[in-house]
Amino acid sequence: MSIRLRFILAVCLAAFSAAGCEVSKSSNPLSPSVAGPIAGVEIGKPAAMEPGQDWQISIRDQPLKLLFQNVTSSGVRPLTYTVEIASDATFGSIVFKRTGIAPSPGDTTSFQLPSTLETGRTYWWRVRAEDGANSSEYSSPQRFQTLMPVVLGRPYAGLPSGPAGSLTPDFQIYTGEVSGPVDRILYTVQVAEDSAFAKVIKTFVVDKTGQTTVISEHYPFAASSVFYWRVQAKDIGDSQAVSSWSLTQAFSTPAPPPPPSSGGGGGGGPVGSGNWQACGSTPGDTLVACVRSAVYVQSTEANAFEITKRVAWLLRNQGFGLLIKNGGENIITWQGYSFSISRIVRSNGALIKVLSDAGTGGTNGATWDDSLDYPGAVSPSLYVPSINPDLP
Question: Is 151-252 in CATH node 1.20.1530.20?
Answer without folding.
Answer: no
